[in-house]
Amino acid sequence: MTLFADTEQQPFDDEEYSCFFNTYVTHDGDICFSCGWGDNESDLNNLATLISKLVSGKIVPMALKNLREQCVDDDKRKDLDNLMLKLSTDTDTEGPLIPPTQASP
Q1: How much is the pLDDT for 4?
Q2: For the chain, what are the domain ranges?
Q3: pLDDT per residue over 4-14, tens digit each?
């Protein structure tokens, strides 16, 4: 997989958001990201906090909880089970992203 930054400027509504860090994957498997922040020092601090939480893995449990709720609400329990299996057997990292003991939806 290729990692690269999206060089096109993303629309940013600094009235609603202090900062953002978006990620997505193309159909070719390239992982892309874009980020932005407002004009204030607090906006930059918020971006630093966001990136720090991404690096530490603190956002993953929150995202998985939200994903679980979304899959249950949308009747996509089979997709959720399949995703959790894939996360527990990921070979691109030094170990599984989610240990099998924590992968139960």
Answers
A1: 55
A2: 1-56, 57-105
A3: 555 555 555 65
